[in-house]
Amino acid sequence: MAVVVQETYKTWHWFISLIAEDLGITDPEHSKHWTFLCDKQKGLVQALANLMREAEHRFCLRHLYENFKLHHRGVELKKLLWKAAMATRVCDFDLAMEELKAINKKTYEWLSQRPPVQWRKSYFMTSSKCDMSLNNWCESFNKSIIDARDKPIITMLEAIRVQLMERIHKQGDGMAKYTGVICPNIQKILDLQKQFPASWIPSWNGEDEFEPSGPYGDKRVVNIRHRSCSCRRWDISGIPCCHAVAALIYMREELEKWVHTSFSKETFMQTFSHVVHVVDSTDTWPAREPLLPLDVPKQVGRKKKQRTKSVNETTNKNLKRRKKKVVQEPGGTKLKRQNTAIACGK
Fold this sequence. Notes:
Keywords: Metal-binding, Zinc, Zinc-finger. With 346 residues, the chain is mostly helical. The chain is built from 13 helices and seven strands. Strand 1 (35-38), helix 3 (44-51) and strand 2 form a beta-alpha-beta unit. It is globular and about 75 Å long.
């Protein structure tokens, strides 16, 4: 975690270089297995491109939709955007884009200008075993530290440190009591996939390949040894898709052992095996010169008092000022305002 005056290319370059050093991914050969999901902050995209050339860079689909909605409104356009983005096969993506082109050609051209590897699942890399297209972690983290952010910098950082210290040990203790082989949320996803194999009938070639046939005549190709399916869901996420589940059930295999090791209980426990050490009171710290605030550059315009809302957020109807109802008296021409006190001057 770092505190900077502004989000610029220089500050992001400095921060990402520290992350790469801590994670040991300064070597391009190691960074190619990593995926960075960002919201296109100022300087962040260019800093990632320069420091992590081999890593995968994705844009948050929710932030992409916010820019999309500014000039391309409509429920139908929104559905087609998400349909195209979530398609894991190139052929399915092309079909969604053709539907979009038939409705609005300008919208089709706007989306076609965006790099495909950064927002389309059909172009995602398969090395990181991550199919995420939405980045809600930043918003969740900012919400969790909202009380600490109003405090002086040392007090703020200490509050965040204690919060992270408690969270890490609670996550580890909670998983230690769990009896499953894979993480609980991943188990729920796998259980959901078990509901669909009944509609897919697998045909086995006698070795590692299966050809599941669907109810509408469509087919997929599953390779058990490579842990791959032609729908690419298993390849991208590391969790067997419904086609792979049908093949594994046919082989009477235990489904949990075919989930990628990144989602196992053992890996989770290793991730949270490290602790944040406690720190004594500030009066025991070595004496230093008083910490002065940074020179914050003055922003143009009036200072904002409220957070800028996204295009998806709506105003609270209860906060809108209600208009007084003007009622005409029966049989008369005078108007009066109900429930309104009128004071007469002298």
